[in-house]
Amino acid sequence: MIDDIFCKIINKEVPADIIMETDEWMAFKDIRPQAPVHILIVPKKHIQDISFVKEEDRELIGKLIIAANEVADKLKLDKGFRLILNQGEHGGPLVPHLHVHLLGGKHLGAKIVADTN
Ligand SMILES: [Zn+2]
What we know:
This protein is 23% helix and 21% strand. It has a single domain (5-104), classed as HIT family, subunit A. By secondary structure, the protein is of the alpha+beta class. The chain is built from 3 helices and 5 strands. The chain is globular and about 35 Å long. A 5-stranded antiparallel sheet has the order 1-2-3-5-4, covered by helices on one side. It binds zinc ion. Zinc ion binds next to helix 1.
């Protein structure tokens, strides 16, 4: 049984601040925002992480990028945004369900990580 927190949000078993939703994906606010705008875009199909993405998921993964454009339009992020996908021990995803971080609402700077140590 798959019972990660994102599947529970998708199944409406756990509340979230949902920004947009289609049959295939959902976008909701990260509960620990790291920028003025921090949205998580998740496929409704449970895919554990990037390493579990299969050829059959090609179209779905593309739709997550299109979703990012739609969310950015809705939130009027006309000056841009950043997308991040984390993978594995070093990437550090906290929830075992593929998700795209959409960050924006301020100038995020050139650095992608806080330090290089
Ligand atoms: Zn899941």
